[in-house]
Specification:
By secondary structure, this protein is an alpha/beta fold. It folds into three domains: 3-21 and 232-361, 3-Layer(aba) Sandwich (Rossmann fold); 26-101 and 119-227, Nitrogenase molybdenum iron protein domain (Rossmann fold); 393-429, no CATH class. 46% of the residues lie in helices and 16% in strands. It is built from 17 helices and 14 strands. The strands form three sheets. A six-stranded parallel β-sheet has the order 1-11-10-9-12-13, sandwiched between helices. A five-stranded parallel β-sheet has the order 6-5-4-7-8, sandwiched between helices. Helix 6 links the parallel strand 4 and strand 5 (152-157). Helix 5 (78-96) runs parallel beside helix 6 and helix 16 (395-411) runs antiparallel to helix 17 (415-429). The longest helix has 19 residues, at 78-96. It is globular. The N and C termini lie far apart (86 Å). 41% of the residues are buried. Substrate binds at residues 234, 256, 259, 325, 358, 412, 417.
Length: 431
């Protein structure tokens, strides 16, 4: 099921995986650009037009009232609600540890300097509607924003054919601390969040997954607002030692393969026998999954295995691939963790399947894909704050150090910079 790759050819595998990045066609970019322009110029009128065109429904109002929210939540399964409440506690617990502190440093001669950590004022979260509903993503986006101290957390999500919000999405939003909910989707929702309309105020940052039109819209409004990332197809890399349970490994590989035909399940192991056992399990388990066709396409196109000499060699190759999800299905995984430098999130041991992180464990499931874990991080509290520096120099300090500043400015031929120091020093030298 998994196509074998020579361990010396893993770099071509890494390039092959990066080629999966969804290039947004010029036609889509033009279409989305026109939608953005319409919403920027016509506001709600354009939003109503596109909602009718794409969602097949006429909307008189976008905002979800408290009464409508509670009515939707009344249709939720009680055990689902209990599960989400427990997940929320775990996600909050993890992200509260990420909160950074402002600081101030004192030096001699009346110099002090420091940094302030300031939450963004407002954040918009896009949540897909229709058949794809991901209440877990609401928690993963909204909770870190709330922990960071964001005051206004806005959610946009497409209405169903009756003009209503999905009950599970409604509950997730209320649980996670979303302050405003608007029933609007697609590129027009991204435009509304970026530019604002008569009834939908603009935000500072937009997060959340969506289709290719939503991705294109996020790409085009970046700069007017910040965005989280343009995510690529999902990926998982499992490192399995000789004691790894083949059924566990196969199940975890399939958990990502079911996302998308372009998802990549990769296995690195130290035993050909183990690879063969896992392949046999993949055949049995994939036949039983409802999304069998998607799974089989993913395995055929991007399912790979690499036989390595040691676990350390497996991790060395994994670092080159920089997977979104990395499972260390080995004995004593903590002893190998320091060797991992490129991975969106690491799942350690035989019992920590990636699904735990997707829903319940507390770590964030919004992760860098397509090798971008080499330089980027999971969504977290830091994603929803900005840092502002401050500096104070006394007269005594400027008198002592001004000559150095003047010299450095002059060497860069920036005499105006040098003069800003000179006029101060000279003013008191004349007295």
């Amino acid at each position: 099921m998994l196509q074998p790759i020579n361990k010396n050819d893993y770099q071509s595998l890494s390039s092959y995986l990066k080629s999966r990045s969804q290039e947004i066609s010029s036609d889509i970019l033009v279409t989305v650009s026109n939608i953005l322009k319409d919403v920027r110029e016509q506001g709600d009128v354009a939003c109503k037009k596109y909602t009718k065109q794409f969602d097949g429904i006429e909307m008189d109002t976008w905002k979800v009232s408290e009464e409508e929210l509670d009515e939707a939540i009344s249709h939720c399964d009680p055990f689902f609600m209990e599960s989400m409440e427990k997940a929320k506690k775990n996600i909050e617990y993890f992200h509260q540890a990420q909160v950074a502190q402002s600081y101030i440093l004192q030096e001699e001669k009346g110099v002090y300097l420091g940094q302030r950590v300031i939450p963004l004022s407002s954040v918009g979260i896009y949540v897909p509607g229709g058949r794809a509903q991901y209440p877990s993503s609401v928690l993963m986006n909204a909770i870190p924003a709330a922990v960071a101290g964001v005051k206004r957390i806005v959610m946009v999500t497409p209405p169903n054919k009756e003009g209503k919000i999905n009950p599970n999405i409604a509950f997730a939003a209320k649980l996670a601390g979303v302050t405003d909910i608007y029933k609007i989707g697609g590129a027009q929702a991204i435009a509304a969040l970026a530019y604002g309309t008569e009834t939908i105020p603009s935000v500072d940052k937009i997060c959340g997954p969506g289709n290719i039109f939503v991705a294109a819209a996020k790409k085009l409004v970046y700069g007017k607002v910040d965005i989280d990332m343009i995510a690529g197809p999902s990926e998982i890399l499992v490192v399995a030692d000789d004691h790894a349970n083949p059924a566990y490994a196969a199940a975890d590989l399939l958990s990502q393969a079911e996302h998308d035909p372009m998802a990549s399940p990769i296995l690195l192991a130290t035993s050909q026998t183990k690879i063969d056992e896992i392949n046999a399990e993949l055949k049995v388990q994939s036949a039983q999954l409802p999304k069998k066709e998607i799974v089989e396409q993913s395995l055929k196109n991007y399912g790979k295995s690499i036989l390595c000499d040691s676990i350390s060699e497996c991790i060395e190759i994994a670092n080159e691939i920089a997977p979104e999800h990395l499972e260390l299905m080995v004995e004593d995984p903590m002893s190998y963790l320091a060797q991992v430098v490129n991975a969106g999130s690491v799942f350690m041991g035989y019992y920590t399947c990636e699904s735990i992180g997707d829903y319940f464990g507390g770590t964030n499931h919004v992760l860098p894909t397509n090798g971008t874990a080499r330089f980027s991080s999971a969504l977290g509290v830091d994603s929803f704050v900005k840092r502002s520096c401050f500096l104070h120099y006394s007269k005594e300090a400027l008198d002592a150090y001004g000559q150095y500043i003047i010299k450095m400015a002059q060497e860069e031929n920036l005499d105006g910079h040098a003069n800003a120091v000179k006029v101060r020093v000279q003013s008191w030298e004349k007295k």
